[in-house]
Specification:
The protein is of the alpha/beta class and 288 residues long. It has two domains: 128 residues; 149 residues, Rossmann fold (3-Layer(aba) Sandwich). The chain has ten helices and ten strands. α7 links the parallel β5 and β6. α1 packs across α10 and α9 runs parallel beside α10. It starts with a strand and ends with a strand.
């Protein structure tokens, strides 16, 4: 029996589900389930079913008790995970987010607690994940029109996550560095980009700081997908050829799920504010 804890925003849920999928492929004779109890009292909700129609096997507290601590809600997990010792049946992601090379091949009953943000865990399941992480068709004029252009032109997506990273203790605020300046310069040196499409939770900052770097090329600031429609931004990202991602699982998936050939994907070396932390940017992407 393998149980994967799923918690976090949509991007993190996708990483955890990718691990879940890899475990199913590598352990076909074992039951693989998910622990969703952490969403009780959490500020975000489980979205994989709502967005992608994914039906997942859920573990009960009784099942979880055999391999880990059966926390019934977010708060109990938040405090208990810091106080209680790790059980031998628990596979907890390394503190510095390094790859656990035996996580997938581990034998016996196991509970997985982490974000698992490295494609090495699930790269051999890309065909399955591309099918399951399938976005519904756009139903509005603005997204439909932009999607048609992104599929025809050599477009670059830029993702800027800023408002909740200012002063954050875990994530770097990339807007306080020259990351975007260097990344845009690299793209413009190595690609014939016709269109830059910017996605952000702070479009005003982007217009003030990125527009001057793009004055001689068309730039679209996608500012209309708010609230529940935010997932449409990830869908649009997947239609671009090249990507400049933030230190965010959201745009990581926007780049990884893209299918255009000849892509240049750029990610930040500085992802976590943690000593010796390992970036989840794939080795075949460019890091700046």
């Amino acid at each position: 029996m393998k149980i994967v804890k799923i918690l976090g925003g949509l991007g993190n849920q996708m990483f955890q589900y990718a691990l879940y999928t890899a475990l199913q492929r590598h352990h076909p004779d074992e039951m693989v389930m998910a622990d969703l109890h952490g969403f009780n009292g959490y500020r975000r909700k489980y979205q994989l079913n709502e967005v992608f129609g994914i039906d997942i096997k859920q573990a009960t507290c009784g099942m979880i008790a055999h391999v880990a601590y059966p926390y019934p809600n977010f708060q109990s997990w938040r405090f208990g995970s810091k106080l209680l010792p790790k059980r031998r049946t628990m596979c907890v992601e390394p503190h510095n987010f390094a790859i656990d090379h035996v996580a997938i091949s581990r034998q016996g009953n196991t509970y997985y607690d982490g974000y698992w943000q490295h494609e090495e865990y699930f790269s051999d399941c890309r065909d399955i994940l591309m099918e399951r992480f399938h976005f519904p068709d756009f139903a509005d004029e603005a997204n439909t029109a932009l999607a048609q252009r992104l599929e025809k032109e050599e477009a670059v997506s830029i993702h800027v996550r800023r408002t909740d990273y200012i002063g954050d203790k875990l994530f770097y605020d990339l807007t306080a560095t020259d990351y975007y300046t260097q990344a845009i310069h690299y793209i413009r040196q190595h690609a014939q980009a016709q269109l830059f499409c910017i996605f952000s939770d702070d479009i005003v900052w982007c217009k003030n700081h990125l527009q001057p770097l793009l004055n001689d090329v068309e730039a679209i600031f996608a500012d209309w997908n708010n609230g529940k429609q935010g997932i449409q931004d990830m869908h649009l990202m997947t239609l671009c050829r090249h990507h400049i991602i933030a230190n965010s699982s959201f745009s990581w998936w926007g780049a990884w799920l893209a299918t255009q050939t000849g892509a240049i994907n750029i990610g930040p070396k500085l992802w976590w504010r943690r000593q010796a932390a390992v970036t989840p940017v794939p080795s075949h992407w460019i890091t700046i």
